[in-house]
Amino acid sequence: MTSSFSLKDRTALITGGARGCGLSFAEGLAEAGADIAIFDIIPPLPSFHTIAATYNVRTAYYFVDVSSPASLQAGFDQFVKDFEGRLDICVPTAGINKNVSFLETSYEEHQKLLGVNVLGVYHTAQLAAGQMVKNGTKVGSIIVVASIASYMAIRSQNSSAYCGTKGAVRAMVPPIAAELVEYGIRVNSISPGYVRTEMTAPFPHLLESWKGEIMNGRVAEPEDIRGACVFLASDASKYMTGQDLCIDGGVTKW
Ligand SMILES: NC(=O)c1ccc[n+]([C@@H]2O[C@H](COP(=O)([O-])OP(=O)(O)OC[C@H]3O[C@@H](n4cnc5c(N)ncnc54)[C@H](O)[C@@H]3O)[C@@H](O)[C@H]2O)c1
């Protein structure tokens, strides 16, 4: 019997895939059988280069700044050429945070956050959807990465602009899903809770204090979020679109 979680013969594009949650998503999708391309502005961690041999899939890395329309388009064109137009799964994960008070957030800082977290996600999804329509995939799935920051303030952090960007990411999902349903493309989001990555590494004291706020008492590792991505990418979630999956150890429910 073929597992409904299998991604064999599918191609996935993950932005922000060089490390952290994005790299974990890439590993999970590859483990399920998908070929993998990642876009990032930093070179991927060494473990990315072992994915192809470990899971017998194809992998590729492209230097792409998702906040630059020109860079995004150029990277996408090259990816489409290299992968002969194949694309079934897109996971716009690239994101940045800024710990700065509401009263001191500058226009420039805010614009930078919006450029990566909102415009970068939206236009990556748009390019991906256009290619999926073009290649006629019957199993299209777009999974954008929002955050618990779209539901609540981040305790002990000043992150109003970041929270706003994540609210925008979650809010764009139902209307995009509604427009893409006629092409058989599903669109959902993942909202991770507190995850131990380079994004949260500068705040070791917060990683410690957050434990007390999380229902299951621990901060997530990127691997803890991976299963949700594989589920949303695969036929196992084929009746699901326009939704958010909150993978947060219960922090928003306590
Ligand atoms: N770490 C957490 O606690 C947490 C919680 C909820 C949501 N998230 C979200 O998860 C996603 C991944 O974050 P992470 O925790 O793995 O952080 P991370 O900093 O380890 O990973 C982010 C990746 O995005 C890349 N990136 C940043 N700007 C980019 C750009 N302009 N173009 C292309 N790539 C770019 C970075 O180089 C990095 O590889 C982000 O959207 C983040 O907001 C993280």
Automatic annotation (TrEMBL):
Gene Ontology MF annotations: oxidoreductase activity, acting on NAD(P)H, oxygen as acceptor; oxidoreductase activity, acting on the CH-OH group of donors, NAD or NADP as acceptor
Alphabetized InterPro entries for the sequence: NAD(P)-bd_dom_sf, Sc_DH/Rdtase_CS, SDR_fam
Signal sequence coordinates: none
Statement: the UniProt record of this protein carries the keyword NADP: yes
This protein's UniProt keywords: NADP, Oxidoreductase
Gene3D superfamilies named in the record: NAD(P)-binding Rossmann-like Domain
Pfam families, per the entry: adh_short_C2
UniProt cross-references to SUPFAM superfamilies, sorted A to Z: NAD(P)-binding Rossmann-fold domains
Protein family per UniProt: Belongs to the short-chain dehydrogenases/reductases (SDR) family.
Protein name (Swiss-Prot/TrEMBL): 3-oxoacyl-reductase
Species name: Morchella conica CCBAS932
Source taxonomy: Eukaryota, Fungi, Dikarya, Ascomycota, Pezizomycotina
